[in-house]
TrEMBL record:
Domain VWFD, chain residue ranges per copy: 222-394
Coiled coil: none
UniProt xrefs under InterPro entries: Snake_toxin-like_sf (IPR045860), VWF/SSPO/ZAN-like_Cys-rich_dom (IPR014853), VWF_type-D (IPR001846), ZP-C (IPR055355), ZP-C_dom (IPR042235), ZP_dom (IPR001507)
Organism lineage string: Eukaryota, Metazoa, Chordata, Craniata, Vertebrata
Segment forming the signal sequence: 1-17
Source organism, top-level taxon: Eukaryota
Species in which this protein is naturally found: Oreochromis niloticus (Nile tilapia)
Domain ZP: 514-766
Keyword list, A-Z: Disulfide bond, Signal
A Pfam family it matches: VWD
Protein name per the record: ZP domain-containing protein
Amino acid sequence: MLRPLLCFCALIALTGAQTYTQQTFTESSVLNISSCPITYYGQQYEQLYVNITSGNVTVCFNGFFSPGAGGDCIVVGSMDVQEFTFETNLHPSSFDQNLIRRYLRTIQNSLECYIEIAFSHYHLYVHNLGTQASLLFFTSSPDPAMLETQVGGSTVNTIHTQTYLDISGCRHSGQMYRPRKVISSDPQTCVRLTCNETAALYTSSCGPLERCQGNGICVLDSTCTVTGPTIIDVHGQINSIQDRCAYSLFSTPSLPDFRVLGNFEDRRRTDVSFLDSVTLRVDGHYIHLEQGGRVQLDDSTLTLSSSSQLENGVQLSKDQTGVTAKLSLSNLTISVFFDGDTAQIRLERPAGSSVEGLCGNSSRSLSDLRLPEYSSTSCEMQYSEPADSTINCTSVTERCSLLKKAPFSSCNSDIDPEPYITACTNTLCKYPAVDGLNCQFLKAYARACSLHNHTLDGWTLKTGCSSEAFCQNRTCSDHEFCGEKTVGGDTRCFCRAIFASKYQANNSLGDPTVCKQNSASVTLVGCLLEDKDVDYSVLHLNDPTCRGQADELTHMVTFSFNSSNSCGAVVMSNNSQVIYKNAIMTENSSSIITRHDHVYIDFSCVQTQPDIKTATFRIRDSSVIRHLTSGVWDYTLTMKAFTDAGRTRAVESSTELQLNQKIWVELKTDGLDGNWVVVVTDSCWATDQPPANSTPRYNLIINGCANPADQTVQVVGNGKGTSNYFSFNMFEFTGGSGEVFLHCKVHLCPKRNNCVPTCPAGDRRRRSVSSKYEGEAFISMAWTR
């Protein structure tokens, strides 16, 4: 770059009183400038070759000027010069530097020194600016002159007097390059050689957190690790989750329909939470990465292998180390790995793009990143437990600090081990090192290193760990987690501490008995049975053929019996109640010894009769139906009159009934299980007023039997099923209104008892004593002669 001077004052500034040594030469000479070396277009020189005898004044850096010799020279136009002077200024003033920068805006370095060569009325100043250099060609003569700079014999610039010129540059492989020029670039590696703005060779490549895409573009390559209760974000900062809620791990404003969620749950202790599953929300769909390598798309379980499977734009695969979900959205590539304990989210994105969620900014409050819509209502509740006295925190710290020793130390420069050590010690000084936790944090660091091309040879052998996922392919229910039966031994599903606490408080293995109208059931918790080392398959009810049914998803075990199969249930009476009792027990063993607890769980159901219900109607309404509800019973009772013994011709409102005409009245229920209960008609009577307790009263059925004083009354099927009927001859009250109101009282009786009334002398006497449910039902009808 060249700039002409605007006034003569510039020369005055540069030639003012300074510290220099002046020499005069009358012939071509070699000058030593080692005290103020000049970097001429990128090549530093410590000698000048000044020639005044060739008809031109030339100042060269690598030998006297010779046309075609390919020198680095400054050539001044033809002039007759007999001598020249040479000066070196080693302590230039700040004014000199400011003047250079005023005219040459490309100059950024500081002025260190300069040299001056004067001949006739012309002055040549060459400035040392470190890796940069400039010159000033100045004359006090009214006759202009030309100056030419050459590199390798080729002209670079030509200027007139009174002009500044930037003579900075870079040299590479024998070539000269001007500042801010790219010399070479490899798109595969993103390595670029540049002559930078200060004329220095600069090799650039992707940064420590970047990766070359193979097209000359570097992208930020960062990893977020979530292991146990700890999040190590993309900046290496840590945060810890203390509750059992869902949190946003990653989101970005440029992709509003994409988010990664982390779900936290308790395990053996109520006061320590662990990452339990990871959810990807993609365009309204949910991909759940769960324990044991199970993957669900919305409500469907996927079967995966090591080969990628595309689901809703997400590449899913599974191997012995865990499950990987990978997708590219816009200018973002994200890979989410989950092995059931640790999630590692790898992000490849343009520099400057924002990352939100716990992986992007751990300084945000947890309440801002908690997701209530994906969490249980009680997830924020805090618990406390006494410290585990068996934990040696000193030993834990030594174990966790292995991350700073070989072979892990080879990765320490790229992946800081301190956040992983902190996560490890904070967790294992409070929670026992079981269920793979002794290796979990070491494994998380090793995998983070592998994502940045560090192979930690022998780390598994040195630590006694495995790179395979813990509890792979073992699926536990929501209230369970996968753990070790013994340290380093087989695995099974354990009850979560908070879930188990409600049963342990009552010393129970399951839920209360569920009693229904015709069945009873008890549900036991599978993981609580395993805690007692009880195999549910050896349990049965009183009837050894009645076994528990295990739910494959919840691992709950249900024992039940009903009216079709009582499974040995014992029926007992207690006043007006009937009790059905059964028991869950361990099958008898032929062995003379046992190492398992004997199980005997007694359970029962108590059933009662509905409350009293009363209804009145006229016979011309044909029939009356009453809906009765009490306790577990919910049924209807119908009273209907007929004119024939087969009960096919119902009495209608238009039916004319004659005195002494026989009619049949049926009492029928709907909604009862005939295998369990029967209907017993206790009594039926007539009054001339609607109230059932009014007088006069005429009895038709007494204590379940026909009134012996009325030979027209017959009772059929009483106490044998869910319906019965009786017959009598029509009558009216003497001196009454002509209306007759018929009332009946019934009750339900357990079928296992003898519910048929005993009526000696042709059903004319008292009934037998049988158990009945508490409460009775009344139903009434009326007719008009």
